[in-house]
Amino acid sequence: MTKLTQNQHTILEALEAAGGPMPSAELAKAFAEQDAFTSDLEALVDTGFVSRKARSLTITEIGLAARAPAKEGLISDKTSDRTPVNQPTKAPTKKDQLKSLLKSPEGITVPDLAAALEWLPHTTRAALTGLKKAGCVIDKLPPLVGSRSSRYQLVEAD
Question: Among 17, 69, 83, 103, which one is least packed by beta carbons within 10 Å?
Fold first, then answer.
């Protein structure tokens, strides 16, 4: 998964806390260095972690999944770079990340999965097949209106 900068974590955290669209000007006020903010925000939009409509920003399912390791304490988030003594230092595997993304209530498309995991589409489809062979039940949902990509959702894990 993409390694996020501290500014990118802060942007995702603010958008998640907003719970809906947030004006980009309001978010920009929190950053002293506007150039760094702009470049970090553009990177998040390019990777699909944040969607931009008009002048407002919203965190996507992919962005929420990227924040999951930080929320679980596996990535230091503003506090300190030291890991607490009783906390495991094992990062989630790609398989764990894939399962997490597939748990989205709306489902997720292969292109979105590929972007979030930094995989090629054929690798992503092979990983879905591997999960099915491992005993996971994955539903294939119809595409959303205006899209041609089917959505996938994890129903039961092994």
Answer: 17
CATH class for domain 6-71?
mainly alpha
The single residue listed with the structure tokens 């230091």 is 76
Q: How many other β-carbons are positioned within 10 Å of the β-carbon of residue 64?
A: 17
**76-82: which pairs have CB atoms within 8 A and are 24 or more residues apart?**
77/9, 77/13, 78/6, 78/9, 78/10
Q: What mean pLDDT comes out for the span 113-120?
A: 92
Per-range mean pLDDT, top range of 13-22, 36-45, 49-58, 99-108: 99-108
Would you say residue 80 has pLDDT above 50? no
> What pLDDT, on the 0 to 100 scale, is given for residue 72?
54
